[in-house]
Amino acid sequence: MERTLSIVKPDGVSKRLIGEVIKRFEGSGLKVIGLKMIWIDKKEAEGFYAVHRGKPFFESLTVFMSSGPSVVMVLEGDGVISKTRELMGATDPKKAAEGTLRRQFAADIEHNIVHGSDAPETAAFEIRYFFNALEMFEY
Ligand code: IDP
Ligand code: MG
Questions:
Q1: What are the boundaries of each domain within the chain?
Q2: Alpha-carbon distance 70 to 48, whole Å?
Q3: Which residues have CB under 6 Å of ligand 1?
Q4: Each residue of 23-75: pLDDT tens digit?
């Protein structure tokens, strides 16, 4: 079964959107198999977003991601990667489809409340980055 990593980013947590994000994922038939609140530090944010190192927004993004607690979760389901990306909407909320999480709640392209892996390989890396085998559950 396909898995993905999602994060309710610090802006999403401070806007009290943890429940809203999980409600939409679960409401689409996806299963939460791992879940925790963590405060990502600057170095961890840099490692997580290593593919974006060198881009103009890298410094600001990693400061933002370490600015408060996040909720990280592992989701499982058929087509979970594309389903979560669809529910999130485009990176830039101005370009995100009507009714998506980012369109509805995000402030701007950086502060866009939620993360979701974009491919099976990145999902595998991202899940391992935050979760060990004992923190994910079959049910
Ligand atoms: P994604 O989260 O939709 O997969 P990515 O291109 O992987 O988007 O970028 C990772 C994160 O970096 C975005 O979610 C957003 O927070 C931030 N970001 C991406 N592009 C920009 C930009 O042009 N300016 C500022 N922040 C950006
Ligand atoms: Mg991405």
A1: 2-39+70-135
A2: 13
A3: 52, 57, 61, 91, 109-110, 112, 115, 118
A4: 999 999 999 999 999 999 999 999 999 999 999 999 999 999 999 999 999 99
